[in-house]
Each structure stands twice: as C-alpha cells, then as structure tokens.
Specification:
Layout lengths: L1 H8 L1 H21 L12 E7 L5 H16 L5 E9 L2 E8 L5 H15 L11 E4 L8 E7 L3 H17 L4 E7 L4 E7 L1 H7 L3 H11 L3 E8 L2 E7 L6 H5 L2 E3 L5 E3 L4 E7 L6 E3 L2 E10 L5 H15 L7 E8 H31 L2 H24 L6 H30 L3
Antiparallel strand pairs: 1-3, 1-4, 2-3, 5-14, 5-15, 6-14, 7-12, 8-9, 10-11, 13-14
Helix pairs in contact: 2-11, 3-4, 5-9, 9-10, 10-11, 10-12, 11-12
C-alpha cells in the first residue's frame, strides 16, 4: 500500500522512473546479442583419434580400448559409447546435467595424457571436443567458375580465408572441396629390388634432406647474424635428385627408382553447388559473438574482396543463419505486436473506456521494454525462445492489467 500511496502522491517522480526504465530498456535492446537459440551447455563430449592405415580391429584393441578404460574414470560420467572405424576411433561421453563441461573436457585431456605414451606411434594426438551449438557454421559461401578447382581452392585459402578470419567475432574459417597439391612418388618395385633398396631407405632419405637447420651465429662488429642452412625442397627437381644410399658406399637418384610427379591428393570431401563442383567456405562464430553482426561483417568483407576475385569466379552465399534468425524474429515480433493490438481492441470493446484502454495499452510496451534490461544484465540473448515467451506473456499481462484496473476503479468508487 505504501508503494501505491507514494506513486499517487509523487506523479512526477514516478513518470521520471518510468522514463528511465524505458530508456534503459531501449539501450539494452540495442546491445542484446541476437541468436537463433539460447546458449545451452550440452553434457556431451567426444574424443576423436586418427590412426591412418589401421583396420577397425587394430584400432579398437590399440586405441579405443585403452582410451575407454581411462576415460571411464572421469567424474560425473553418465554413459560412454565408442565407435571404431578404419583409421579412426570415436569415443562419445554423456555427462550428468549441470556438469561444468569446461572442467569435464579438461579432465578428459588429463586422462588421455596418462596413456598417450602407450598408444602406437602412428596415432595422432586425441582431440577432445565438447558439444556446442555455436560450432555449427553460421555462413557458408560457394566458389564456382574459374579455370579449375585447384585455383579456386588456392583463392579461397590464400585470399578469402585470411581476410574473413580477421573479422570481429569470427572463430574459424574452413575450406572444403577442390584439389590439394601433392607431390607423388610412385616407386618401381622391380628397380627397388634390383638395387637392393627398401622403402624405409627412401623415406629416411627424403626426411633427412627436407629440413632447415640452425647453424649458429656470426658476430660482425656490433651485429650478431644468425646462420641457417636451408635444405627444404623448393622444386620438383630437388626431390627427383635426392640420393639414396646403396651397398658399397654408392648412391642413386630417386628419379631412377621412382616416378616423381606434381599431382593432387585424393579428395576426401566433395562440394557441389547447383550440381557443379565447387569450393565451400564455412564460417564459425565465437560463442559470445552476435550472429547477425558477424554475418554483416562477413558480407561486407566479401564486398570489399570483389575486386580481388577474378571476374569468372562467382562467390555465392549458400547459407546464412542470420537471414533465418532475422526472419524468425521478425515473424515473432509481428505476431506479438498484432496480438497486443488485438488485446487492446478487445479491452476497449468490453470496457468501453478510452482512458482504461490507454492505461493498458501503455502498460504493455513499458513492461516489455523493461524486460530487455533484465535480459541484457543477465547475459541472455534475444532468440526464438525468449521472444516466444514475450509473445505468450502479453496475454497474461493483459489479464493482470484488467484485474489491477478493475481494482483501481473499485477503490475510486469507494471514495479512496
């Protein structure tokens, strides 16, 4: 009752307070992050390990089983699943809801480090990834045209990818499709056997020659110059002329034992756009970044890059999550506005009072805009769920406003 009495006696103070709430709500609305769905900490994590060239049974016995045994001791673990493929081990872990997934993945890495030294030498370092909706690409671009897929991939990796990675809010940019350059060495088994050369000798010779070595330093006056021996391969002939040691102290050039050619690696991913081969560029945002804002920056960067992209190359936006988000939010906003207007019209038809209708009509936007301040201060985002809740809350807000208004009329009728 004291709040009501104070509000009635100090109308100017209350008006200024309402104005401050509206201003705070508007400022908060302009700073709110916009996303498709709210942030969710999913209690799932995956350990991925590559073992190139190994069969499923070998991967299971030497990689999956040891990792499963040690990962099963992680705290708050609810269930553990594994899938073993040729050359790959996947271990999926389900934790109890409410588990701190950053700490859980840290524990997983610590457990893996305990047995990593016992895994086969050819096994890559296990990669631990937690389930995160923000890991999904928010934008996918398709590059088509040009001379060939090799040139398209070079353009994507050397020109477009570095520029997009510099944009604020971008976490990573990945390129799929196209061809990757690969120097292929096709050994002749007959010649290898004739000269008594094994495959391990060829591999060792190639590794020994392809390196840069620090060779100390030279002091010249007051300057210290660092010396390096540059031995990495620069041309195809450098590889062809690598010497392979033979019995008796002799040697033979690699080109006399094998065919060395400049080719392409086997394609593991193929991208198509409108049925034609293309190169796909996928952009992932940082978890705290605004999807719509990141999308705008990426599109602006692509417009600036138009001058550096050849005329016969087309860069097309295949998927843009920001477009779907804007459409979804606009639809929800339109429905909320229409619902609010209909509620006000119905109130007027029943109450037959412009004054009462205006009171309820003002209460709706003021109450809604005040919620934006709470969302911003709570670190929440503007998404389909929060806007859906606001749309549903409008009906309840109208009911409450009518009840309060009826109570006011009753007090006024009783002489208060």
């Amino acid at each position: 009752m004291k709040i009501i009495e104070t509000s009635v006696r100090r109308p100017v103070t209350i008006a200024m307070l309402v104005l401050a709430i509206v201003l705070l709500g508007y400022v908060s609305l302009t700073r709110l992050s916009i996303d498709l769905l709210p942030k969710m900490d999913l209690p799932y994590a995956v350990a991925i390990t590559e073992y190139s060239g190994a069969g499923p049974e070998e991967v299971e016995s030497t990689v999956t089983k040891p990792l499963e045994d040690v990962l099963s001791t992680v705290e708050n673990l609810d269930a553990i699943y594994s899938q073993t493929l040729a050359g790959q081990s996947l271990i999926m872990m389900e934790f109890k809801y409410g588990t701190d997934m950053n700490f859980a993945t840290l524990q997983m890495r610590e457990k893996i480090d305990m047995v990593k030294g016992f895994l086969p030498d050819a096994v890559t370092d296990p990669m631990v990834v937690k389930a995160d909706l923000s890991m999904m690409p928010i934008i996918q671009l398709g590059l088509s045209g040009g001379k060939n897929l090799k040139d398209l991939k070079d353009l994507a990796e050397d020109v477009i990818q570095p520029r997009l990675e510099r944009q604020a809010g971008v976490a990573s940019v990945s390129v799929t499709g196209g061809y990757t350059r690969e120097i292929q060495i096709l050994v002749n088994p007959v010649k290898m056997e004739a000269y008594g050369v094994g495959m391990s000798q060829v591999i060792q010779a190639l590794q020994a020659e392809n390196m840069n070595v620090a060779s100390g330093s030279v002091t010249e006056g007051n300057k210290e110059l660092f010396v390096r021996t540059m031995g990495q391969y620069q041309t195809l002939d450098d590889i062809k002329n690598v010497r392979i040691g033979l019995a008796g102290g002799q040697s033979i050039a690699l080109k006399d034992l094998a065919e060395v050619k400049d080719g392409y690696a086997e394609q593991k991913t193929i991208s198509r756009m409108n049925g034609e081969p293309c190169v796909t560029i996928s952009i992932q945002k940082q978890s705290e970044a605004n999807t719509v804002q990141v999308s705008r920056l990426v599109q602006k960067a692509m417009e600036e890059l138009a001058e550096e992209i050849p005329e016969n190359v087309q860069a097309v936006t295949v998927f843009d999550q920001a477009k779907f988000i804007n459409e979804s939010i606009n639809n929800l906003s339109d429905h909320a506005i229409v619902g609010g207007l209909l509620a006000i019209i119905i109130v007027y038809l029943f109450l037959r009072s412009i004054r009462s209708t205006l009171i309820i009509g003002l209460a709706l936007p003021i109450s809604i805009i005040a919620i934006f301040t709470i969302l911003y201060m709570g670190g929440l985002t503007l998404n389909m769920m929060s806007l859906g809740g606001l749309a549903l809350g409008i009906g309840h807000l109208v009911d409450c406003s009518i009840v309060v208004l009826e109570s006011i009329y009753r007090y006024r009728r009783d002489g208060y």
